[in-house]
Structure formats: C-alpha cells, structure tokens
Write a structure and sequence with these properties.
Chain A: This is DUF5666 domain-containing protein. The complex is a heterodimer of chains A (about 110) and B (about 475). With about 110 residues, chain A is of the alpha+beta class. Chain A is about 30% helix and about 40% strand. In chain B, strands 3, 6, 7, 8, 9, 10, 11 and 12 form an 8-stranded mixed beta sheet that branches. A two-stranded antiparallel ribbon of chain B has the order 1-2. A two-stranded antiparallel ribbon of chain B has the order 4-5. The chains are: A alpha+beta (about 110), B alpha+beta (about 475).
Amino acid sequence: MKKAVSVMVLVAVAALTIFCFGSVASAGEEIKMVGVITKIDIAGKDAKTATATLKDNKTEQLVVITVEDDLTLDKFKDHRIVEGDEIRCKYEVIDGKNVSKLFRKTAGC
Amino acid sequence: MRGMLGILAGVVLLVASAAQGMAAVDHAEFVKGPFKSGSEVTKVCLECHEQQAADFMKTTHWTWAGTPNMVKGMEKSTKKYGKSNMINSFCTSIQGGKDGVVHESCGKCHAGYGWTRTDFDFTDKGKVDCLICHAQKGNYTRATVGCDIDKKSIDKKAMDLNVAAQSVGLPTRKNCGACHFFGGGGDAVKNAGLDSTLEKTKKSQDVHMGSKESGGQDMSCQTCHVTKNHKIGGASSMMAHYDTRVNCEQCHSGAKAPHQKAKNGALINKHLATVACQTCHIPFFAKGQATKMAWKWSDVGKNITAEEQFDKETYAKHKGTFVWGMNVKPVYAWNSGMVERYMVGDKVKDPTKPVVMMRPVGDIKDQKSKIYPYKLYKGDQPMDAKYKNLIIFQQYKSLWVDYDWDKACRLGAEGTGLPYSGKYQFVNTVAYIAAQHEVAPKEEALQCGECHMGGNRLDWKALGYKGDPMQKGGRFAKAAQKVAKK
C-alpha cells in the first residue's frame, strides 16, 4: 500500500513539475515573425499602448501585436512606421496578448 | 537711473532670447506654406537665414569633403577628401557609375536637394535642406532615391511638409540620427554603439543620452558635438577631415574633473596620461541592437540561406554575408589623434594580408598617444588584379540588379577615373572604428582586475608592454626613475 502511495505521489510531483515548467516555457517563449503592417490602432498622442496587425510573410496569417515601448509608439505617432511597412517582430504571449519585444522595419539601403 | 535699468533689462532680455535661439521661436508664424517641395521651404528659410545657409555650405555636411587633416602623411594636402571621393568597406563609395549615378541613392543623407549627378551646384543656397536637421514634427523624410523629400510619404499621409516646415528648432537626436544612426546602409550597421535605439533610451545604455527618468542626462548630440556657425564638432573614424574635435574634458575638467569622489581617485587619475576615458567607460558597445562586425561582398549572388544572428539576417543576395555582434567587447589600440587610411587608387602591397581601410596611428613610445576602444570590423571587396587598387564597383544599378561582378567593376570605373583591367580578385579588409558612444554608468566602468592582475581585457604585449604594467612597469616608469636619479 505504502509503495502504491509513494508511486502516486511521485507521479503527481512529476506531473506538477512538467505542468509548471511547461507553463513557464510557453509564457516566456519569444515568437519571431516578419510581416507587413495592415493596420495600426493607437489612441491619441498620449497613448501608452498601441496594436499593430501584421500579415505574416510565411503563413499569411494576421497577427495582432501589442506595442508598449516608447520608441516604437513615437514612430507610430509621427508616422515613421505606417501601414504597408515590413516589420521584423519578436513577441511574447502575456495574458493572451502578443506583446512586442522587438518591432523594427526591415528596410535598409 | 531708471532709463539705465530699462536699457540693462532690455539687453538682458535680448541676450537671453538670443541664447534660446530658434528653439524658443515658433516659426509657424513666419513659415506659412502650403509647400509642395523642399526647395520651396528653403526659399522661405533664406528670407531670414541666408547667412546660416552660407555658413552651412562651408561645412562637410554640405561639401562631403575637406582637407585630410586627420590622415597621417596627408596633413599638408590641400586636396579635399570625404564621402564624395573616399572608399570604405561598407557600401564602399558614392562614385561607382557614370556621371555619379550613385549620388541619387547615397544622396538621401546629403543635406541638400538634387545631388543626383556630378554637376550638382554646390553654390546654390536654394538647394540646402534645412528641414532634415531642424524639422521637429511632420515626419520629414527624404526619399531613398532622388535626393529629395519623400513624396510617397506625403501621398501616404505619413509626412506633412507644412507641419515639418513650421516645426523647426534646434536639432534633436532624432534629426542627427536620421542619417548617423543608419551609417553603412542600415540601422546600427557602421558605427560602434550608434543606432536608433539611442533616440529614446535609458541611462543603462548611455549616461549622456539616457532619459532623465532613468537617471540619464537626455543630452542632445550638439551638447558634446559643439557647433559654431553650423560647423559641427567631431571626427569620424572613416573620414579624413574634421573641423573641431570632441573630447570628454570639454565638460569633465576643473570643478567637474573625474574621479574626485572615487575611492582610488588618485590612482585612477594616473591612468589618464595613457588610457582614454572611453576605454574604461565604454566596456561594451552595441547594447541596444546588433552592429555589423563583418561583411563579405564576395558572397553576392550566391544561393546562401540567411540565418538570424541577434535578430538580423546573416545574408542578403545583393550584399553578401554578414556577421553581427551585440554587447561587443571592444579591441584596444594606441591613438595619437591621426589615422592611417586607405585612399582611392592606393596600391595594395600584399593582397594576401587584409587591407587596412582605417587604423589609428599611435604607439606606446608616443607620449601623446592613449589607448582607445574600437570596433574591429572585417570584410572583403574587389581589387583590380592587375593594378592592385580596390575597385569602386557600381552596385545600385548594376551589381544589385544582375550580380555580375565584372560588369559592376567596369561600370563603376566609369565614375572614378580609375582604370579597370578586366580582372578582379577579392581581398580582405579591416577597419578600426572608434567606440565613442554608449558610455556606461560609472558602476559599470572597467575595474582594475579586468586589465590587471591576470585580467585579459587588454593584450599588453600587443600594445607594446612587456606585460601587465602593474607588475612590469608602465611606459612612463623609466622616465620617472630618471627624474628620481636627477
């Protein structure tokens, strides 16, 4: 009986460990993509957040990215980044939102 | 008495408003518009600022050339050198092609309108682009091709030329960065620690440019690059000419002398005759994003799959392969203030060894030299197999179109005055690019153990020492002993 309980406890601990670490891994995972901006939503010049919809070059799926960093927000506000620009993006899923960690135009001369 | 006070107050007000300069003046009142071209804006600027345009036209931002007062062995030359007629190991040169065809692309960063061919009129004030340095709003943008404003941005409503014209003020980091963050053909490519992340950054990246909220100074470029009559202080590693130099002592001297509160201040100060401030205070560069550390032009046109390195691609078919570096530890070299520079037409003595495109001049015996930090940038590019000079090839409308090197070399030669033998070979190059930005918070400055007592950040023997000067003696030790004997 004791043996059975021990095995069950071990299995439970193992399952819990996998669950915990698994969750951490997916939450902290950075997803990379290159895509073209189809839409930018920003609420006024004092906005502290914005969303940009990118069409993934590989999958052609639309991905909505939440942008929170000041520099990129500035570029949205003064139109240095606009719809039609190709973007190299890295984001992380946080509370169901794709939060941008890198949002950079691909263009160079 | 009252009259005197009134005059005095008036003078004080006048001086104060002059000191505030154009930053305090709302130009919306004077600059009405509507404007359809950059030149139309310049015409209005010239109504009050003709002298400023004349001053600006004497600077290298306009001429892209100056006497080579920074190049060892060419100090007395009266011929002018600069972006207009030099070669580097990035996008190489603006001369490649008949009648300067490349100007129409490279001219994106010329502060003028219309330098699309070699017959550009450098005496025409009406061609000065005031807005690229002074517009604060309206997303003023220059076109990638055509040496003009970006009319596509206006069509897309991404740029408002009227707003730009009315918003003029003292240049911000965004203004200077429009070109200088993108040196070498893209963001962060050329310079060591100078890229668009510095537009809005934190003290941890750069103590001078970091935001006030983060504890930084939020300084503009011209706080250090002191400007007089539109001549902007500073010297680029890749160029031949400077008007005035920038140095840390401009601010950090006298009452603001460094290390006064440091525990070992006196000991640290003994380093100052030999070690540049930047050496300890810029322990790493490219902290905001990766910079290009190597570029092999010889891989152009190949079917190489691009990989990612620090979120940047390692290959572009029209440019070749790249190596990127982030949080890069500099290399160190002596610098007396002069450079050794490969100039157009110079013969390559030994093609099996890397051609030095730029290297600081200095050594341990030269008492004026100090040890400075550098980005060591490597590459390869074509050399004429017969004449042994680096080739200026036509990339923009030739190599980038069909990847035909022979044709690109032949067409490029038409713009340079250099002969092309019909045979080319690739040679390796190296360039030492000064790390001058991204000054770290003092807590992150190099500590003794990083260089001394087994620390290996500095290669003492390569610098000419017998070993760690803490153990083997410094370069002034001998002189000090002689002084003691006397």
